[in-house]
Amino acid sequence: MVLILILSQLNFGYLTVRAEQEGLPIYVDSDFIGKTPIINYPLKPDEYNVGFFPQDSVEQASWRLKGGSLGALWKIAKYSEGIVKVRIAQDSITTVVLNYKKVTRAPGKAKLIFGSIIGGVFILGVLSTLAVRAVF
Length: 136
Fold this sequence. Notes:
By secondary structure, the protein is α+β, with helices and mostly antiparallel strands. It has helices at residues 2-9, 55-66, 71-82, 100-135, and strands at 13-19, 25-28, 31-35, 38-43, 46-51, 83-88, 93-98. The chain has one domain (2-135): Immunoglobulin-like.
């Protein structure tokens, strides 16, 4: 029995997650694994989404955006700052450092970029109209 347990441990890699503050929830894909800091959490070698939010919340926001909810765009920006894709390798430790301050600033940053694009398109339209009037 002990031999089986030892052999099964050889097929794991380990995940360590740190953030600028302790006690933040951490998810691997959609499974809650604890609060920061997470030290040497065993996982089978594979690719995972690791972050402050469960992966299914990102998918739900994507569906709401496809349904026309502009507010979902700000949530997606927030989630994308708070989730990273990692590859866990056998018999090694993968360390992830997450920044929750970036997560809280992400919606405002996305709104600024979106507003700049809309404003740029508007100004381009005005300039194009003025240019056409000057020619004709």
